[in-house]
């Protein structure tokens, strides 16, 4: 996991995409850092707002980690992209991370105009791995509390959302990846157990998993989910996508066969890594209701 994050951090940036560091206040007075990405060349008068939440097992990660996604999104869609942070375990255990992410999103929804964004032009939240967990929890809270402006889309890459005791009975037979891929590279059973030990979450809490608040599945925004075939949390993503479909939520699912959790950072020369990047950038367009030119996407990839 750490190697994948280091490789992501070393990927080059885009000229003319400004990066500004800000601080966002939390409910207890703590200030969390965030980076705002904006393309200086953008001509649209209304910039959509995209919020990204990095992963790292709730115990590692940094706001620059998803820059390789944030920069091309700012360029392609003229969006204001904000990579937010949260306090990490084991120093800051559950529920501090989900509280921090929610506080970030709530603050950004109120202060978007000061950052040059207009959430009414699109308000998408995305996350990877543990960040996808925190984003999923926040989005269901946004629906439940009627956050205004409303969230209009969710990007979920290799989300950790389930433990065996909260898998919906309907999909219990699909939940096999945790054992099937227990020794996979990138993320294995030992890594998951370490994350659980440090995070110390309440498995039945809606602040841990959206599956603990099933009523809030209805009314969720359109969602794009990505999973990896050789990933212990593969079935978390697949079952999540199936459950969204059950609740008539617009959802797309892509699965990348034979690759592990974090493959896009560890094995960047794989064709599937390039396809992952193309899919991600293109489907943010779907989430935003925009249709970019494929050549523009390929040039950025």
From TrEMBL:
<keyword id="KW-1133">Transmembrane helix</keyword>
<dbReference type="GO" id="GO:0016787">
    <property type="term" value="F:hydrolase activity"/>
</dbReference>
<feature type="transmembrane region" description="Helical">
    <location>
        <begin position="49"/>
        <end position="70"/>
    </location>
</feature>
<feature type="domain" description="Alpha/beta hydrolase fold-3">
    <location>
        <begin position="51"/>
        <end position="263"/>
    </location>
</feature>
<keyword id="KW-0812">Transmembrane</keyword>
<keyword id="KW-0378">Hydrolase</keyword>
<dbReference type="InterPro" id="IPR013094">
    <property type="entry name" value="AB_hydrolase_3"/>
</dbReference>
<keyword id="KW-0472">Membrane</keyword>
<protein>
    <submittedName>
        <fullName>Alpha/Beta hydrolase protein</fullName>
    </submittedName>
</protein>
<dbReference type="InterPro" id="IPR050300">
    <property type="entry name" value="GDXG_lipolytic_enzyme"/>
</dbReference>
<dbReference type="Pfam" id="PF07859">
    <property type="entry name" value="Abhydrolase_3"/>
</dbReference>
<dbReference type="InterPro" id="IPR029058">
    <property type="entry name" value="AB_hydrolase_fold"/>
</dbReference>
